[in-house]
Design a protein that fits this description.
The chain is built from 2 helices and 2 strands; from the N terminus they run ααββ. About 5% of the residues are buried.
């Protein structure tokens, strides 16, 4: 499942949420879609964490004019969990 592009995983997850909220799925189909959704959430979270680790902030320049970079530290403002 980790090979799916982030945008595709997110779109599929949104579709699953709509299907589950619609309430028209049978129990077995709803459970299957729910389980797929959990896997997609894990995939999206892993992709976001990997992207976050790659982001750096320019904090200035040193005496030689070279950029000073430091890892981006995200502070969570939304405490909701997916």
């Amino acid at each position: 499942m980790n090979e799916i592009p982030f945008e595709q995983a997110l779109a599929e997850l949104e579709s699953i949420v709509r299907d589950l909220e619609d309430g028209r799925l049978g129990l077995d189909d709803a459970l299957s879609r729910y389980e797929r959704g959990i896997g997609l959430i894990q995939t999206c979270q892993a992709r976001l964490q990997a992207a976050e680790q790659r982001i750096v902030m320019l904090t200035g320049t040193d005496d030689d004019g070279e950029p000073i970079l430091q890892p981006f530290r995200h502070t969570r403002t939304d405490t909701r969990r997916i």
